[in-house]
Amino acid sequence: MKKTFIVILAFSAFFTFFSCSSTKKAETSEDSSYSEKDSEAESGDEEKVDVSFMIAEPQISKTEPTFSYNTYKVQRKDDYHKIAYKIYKVRHLWPCIYAANVENYPDPDLIRYNTDIKVPVITSVSKESDNIKAAMFKSYKAYTDLAASAKSSSKKRKCKDRAVGVLVSAELLIPGFISGNPKSFDKQDVADAKVILRKKFGYKI
Questions:
Q1: CA 95/CA 73 separation, integer angstroms
Q2: CA–CA separation, 96 and 124 (whole Å)
Q3: pTM of this structure
Q4: How far apart are CA 181 and CA 175, in angstroms?
Q5: 119 sits in which H/E element
Q6: Please, what's the b/e burial string for 72-100 (b: 16 or more CB within 10 A of its CB; e: otherwise)?
Q7: Within 13 Å, how many C-alpha atoms sit on residue 159's CB side?
Q8: Fewest CB atoms within 10 Å of the CB: 135, 145, 166, 194?
């Protein structure tokens, strides 16, 4: 009788231990499963975080020029540079004419013969400096956009050179234009413009 009682007691203790151990494993397994799911959820949240604000990109001014205008009939072999020299005696003001007609002629190198275009009234560069700046930004962006979409390397190079030319014109008209807008222009364009300003115009920048 005493032996039987001891056997029953031992068996009962073993069964209790086995049950507790199984329960603990199940809880551990659930905890592990939860941790993995929780980790996946957190990882998923991290992938959705918007970090675009951390990427530095050129920022082009959206300001629109607000000149008053006259009209001009395009002659044979005219381009914006020639028209600017005819009207203002300063060819570097050509982006102002382009910006005034961009809706009809989005390519700065193309205007149609024998058509009337708008020509801004500019009596003083200092008085119209804000409008001139806005026109320069618009012209620079036009060339950089054309360069980005160009299918040939020669076309791309040509557009990049013209974009640099805009920066040169802007700096000659409004000293400090380039340095005052450090995030607005491609670094290589700025470097090329500075070389031209120093070598061709003796401009210290």
A1: 17
A2: 13
A3: 0.69
A4: 12
A5: strand 116-120
A6: bebeeebbbbebbeebbeeebbbbbbbbb
A7: 21
A8: 145
